[in-house]
Amino acid sequence: MAGRGRARYSPSNMQMVLASIGEEEVTLSRGLGKMQITSTPPPAKSAAAPSSSSMSSRTKLEYERMKEQLRYLEQERAASSKARVLQIKEVLQRAQEVDIAFLLDATNSMKKSFQMVKNEINGMAAGISLSYPQCKLRFALTVYRDYDSPKVGGLDGCNFTSNYKGPNSTFSNTLSQIQLSWGVDDAEDVFTGLENAAKLDWQAMNRLLVHIGDAPCHGSQFHDDTVPDDYPKGDKYGRSIQAILRKLRETCRITRYFFCHINKQTLKMIQEFRKAAGRGDWVEEWQINDLSKVPDKVIAASRAAITESISLVQHGGAGQHIFAKEKVDHRIPDWNRVRFQEGTEFVHRQCSSLDQLLKTIQEARPLDLMKTAVSDVHVQIALSPFSEEGNLRYPYYALVAGRDSDKPGRVEVVKRFKTELGKSPTSQHTKQRYVQQMEVQTVARQLAQEFNKSTSRLPGVPKVKFTEVCLLETEGKFYTKEKLLKGEWTRFSNNGEYVNKVNYAATLQAFSHWTYYITSGLLMVTDLQGVKVRDPSVPGQHVFRLCDPAIHTNDANVMRFSNTNFGEDGCKLFLQSHQCNDVCRHLRLPTGRAGNTDDGTLVQGIKKS
């Protein structure tokens, strides 16, 4: 019955039928499939009004069917939201799983390294969990010596285990039972150590190999002539470093290989490893003069891996999606060689107040779409994108002018979703998907306007402005279009825990916090990126010009604002790591669990509260 009702009635004739009955008023919201019925008294009937018992019976039957349809759609929406929340929890948990394997040279000169790992393993785990309390950690250990090292007893490592806390843990007991030995020459059998690492039971989404050594492998191509080596022609067993590293990267899918240089003897070896790996950034070098710095490096690397994984799960998780590659050209094209197209532009009508905006979201109604003031345009779109850094979309330069305008065109940016291989391009480039993407920035833009009013009396606090986005339809294709931002591009945060500490922006951290507070937890604007430039309207002041944010909502609205919306779990990721700064304090925002910081913008001329 519900299925037949959906096929038979449209929202418009449902409204007409119910209005003719006069028993209830129906409010239909199609943004997320929500349809709400609110009871109102029936209108008074005139004594002279005609009546028809047969018509009344048929109409009431239709009305009952429509009520059933509305209940079904509401249940369907609730079920979809619940499924999405469960999916978010699953992928976020997966993104916070980390396997860390230590690969150590088990010769006598490395005794301090073994002691450091044993003493600091709990501290490393605590440091990672401080940023990501829900993370799931496993540690492993494997070692190597030299071909001709004397045989020793004890263990040679342990596979991944979550039993690493305390002196009697599996991990600590293994470390205690490893016996070190001397080698004959200075070079070591590093290849066997790497092969041992490949045999470990790697499972987590984030897989880190931390290699600590003070001697290179055999073969003169891997070290200077000053290093004694009984096998200068290379590995005793003829193994290939390319094949070993390929197995670690492609078969074991290790996220990153970190090597800790204790001295300069290993520098050349890692240069060769980077070449052999095929991807130089996959092998990362740490220059370590003091072993006490290693734990902080491991903590930072683990946090960075989790942060990157969280940014990837917004479109299903790393490695699960392959997009069609496009050739990138960073230059603005010669417009004389780019053909003209006719297009039409649409924007969202801005709500009259913040209360109206929040009510629209709470009631799951779509924002009104309308044509722009100059809706009909001539547009020239570059053949190639100028960047490939976006996770989901390619940006293109575009020259845009009104069809009836004598003014020269202006260079702007149009963005189009990357096309996933193996799926229908038509299904990936629907108008609805582009409208949804545009809505995220429209909502963020209005919230930023309200935020600027709240900070207008705080000297030294830059304004926050999002570029206005419109939907461009041309020749059957859809794009989002916005102004070209000029300046040094910076990602200040993502839709997870990441905060740019090098270019820390206290105002933007406060903005994300404020959006959650001012909407009573309905939503939070995150993933802030763009440029910081001089504000032409205020001498000596700056302004953040941003685009492409993400919005997290409460779980009831988790189906809105695209897949970058992680719901309440996304809000928690921000709040559990956010440190309130001077701007937060002056806005009287509640202090979160991470406490306070003095970093970033200090409100000028106002005593700290």
Automatic annotation (TrEMBL):
Residues 45-57 have a biased composition (Low complexity). InterPro entries: a-kinase_dom, Kinase-like_dom_sf, Thr-specific_kinase-like, vWFA_dom_sf. GO terms for molecular function: protein serine/threonine kinase activity. Keywords: Kinase, Serine/threonine-protein kinase, Transferase. Residues 34-59 are annotated as: Disordered. PROSITE patterns: ALPHA_KINASE (PS51158). Pfam families: Alpha_kinase (PF02816). PANTHER family: ALPHA-PROTEIN KINASE VWKA. This is Alpha-type protein kinase domain-containing protein. It comes from Riccia fluitans.
